[in-house]
Amino acid sequence: MxxxxxxxxxxxxxxxxxxxxxxxxxxxxxxxxxxxxxxxEAKHDSYQYVLIRGKAIFEDEQAIGIIASxxxxxxxxxxxxxxxxxxxxxxxxxxxNNLLTGEVVRTATRFYIDELxxxxxxxxxxxxxxxxxxxxxxxxxxxxxxxxxxxxxTKDAGCEFxxxxxxxxxxxxxxxxxxxDDGYGERGERFLGVTYNIHERKxxxxxxxxxxxxxxxxxxLLEEANVHLKEKESALRESQQILKFALDGAGExxxxxxxxxxxxxxxxxxxxxxxxxTQVGKDRYEFNDWSEYLHPDSIDSTMLAYESMANNRxxxxxxxxxxxxxxxSYKWFLTRGMVVxxxxxxxxxxxxxxxxxxxxxxxxxxxxxxSAEILEMVAEGKPSKQIYETICLLHEKMNPGMxxxxxxxxxxxxxxVCAPNLPEAYLKAIDGVIIGPSVGSCGTxxxxxxxxxxxxxxxxxxxxxxxxxxxxxxxxxCWSEPVIGQDGNVIxxxxxxxxxxxxxxxxxxxxxxxxxxxxxxxxxxxxxxx
Length: 530
What we know:
Elements: H1 6-9, H2 17-28, E1 35-41, E2 47-59, E3 62-72, H3 74-90, E4 93-98, E5 104-106, H4 109-115, H5 127-131, H6 136-150, E6 157-164, E7 170-181, E8 187-197, H7 199-228, H8 233-249, E9 253-258, E10 263-267, H9 268-273, E11 284-286, H10 299-310, E12 316-324, E13 330-342, E14 348-357, H11 359-379, H12 384-398, E15 403-410, E16 413-418, H13 424-430, E17 433-434, H14 440-448, E18 452-454, H15 467-471, E19 477-484, E20 490-498, H16 506-529
Helix pairs in contact: 3-11, 3-16, 7-8, 11-12, 11-16, 12-16
């Protein structure tokens, strides 16, 4: 017996009707498929997602009816409105695919229209439409990343690829996606994620690659000439010096390492990268004991690359490493080199190479990864307390020695909701403080609705009545950013404390502002659900 529900079917979105009919047929056939998510007609000619839970009634092994409940998922869809606020701030766009139907439920529209120049009518509606504008060389690796994730071999699907713009140009993007489970620990049909533009980064990498190719080619030629024509050694070294001047002009520091003595001779540009003083007219400096400047996390990879070159297992040296500058802060460097001189026994004598500051790129990658993780937690409906703690800890990891805190504004008082590493005594002392024009960094930021940067708490008038509470705990700097709610009002603050006077750089300002927007999303959801 086949049941018909024509009256209800007409209210279901046309693209979901086949799925609905299949669900009903399955129930009538005895299949225990207890729930289905479809779009159903709502007011004002719109559709909303509903969750149907049904069970067939059988008599003499024939289905004679169906009992079902329908639950609106409108509250869940409101999460997407929250995500829109942070997506634009973080440079991300959100998408969702249905794995069963192949339908593109939500397209990364902003990129298609604003960046790639497509019209709304051009936006893809299926994955095959999408693959048609992906660069042919990238389709296979994109399909592979998705198939490995669908097979359960990877926890997520991430891939770099190129998309053709309306004007016919290829633009680089990175997509990060994940299949959400069905609520029972099994993989569901929803595949969603974020996409962001990496074209500028890829262009820079390409430029660096070609520059280093030229450097490698030039050094190889120099080495061959040195082996066969030792009498021209001075001329070759002069050519190397010219090359180093050119690299300095391009923003790269140059170094020479002598294996027998352990001596390093570096260019003035590299000295400046570390914040060290240089002399006018002098370009070569002795800079030894590099290991003292290495970040603990970079020691193993750096030593492995160096020992491989020193022991003649590799001619080349290539490593990304964190090094401490003179002010105590750490910077990321991409350091590349090669052995250019050997003794008669074939042992390396000298290596030469370049170092370029890639801190900005690395910090942006960390920030994008942080934003993607928080947005995923919001999309999955994780508890607010867990999201707040993750925001604080991720930003503390990006800024060693920093202590993050999130405060909620209730009435005219600030209350701590998360501060994983601030002293408990300090938190108790200021909890419930009334905001005002001179109430520390957070109280002032909440009152003025403006970012407040205090580099020296001891001398700043904003901290007049409160400085002793924090100074005794060894924290001397506080930056605070107001958290603005969906209605445009201040609903809290996000702050960073440091144990030494610190002035924020551009990427740190970007990080605190981005964190404020992520906190706003979570607080908006929390306020709406309370």
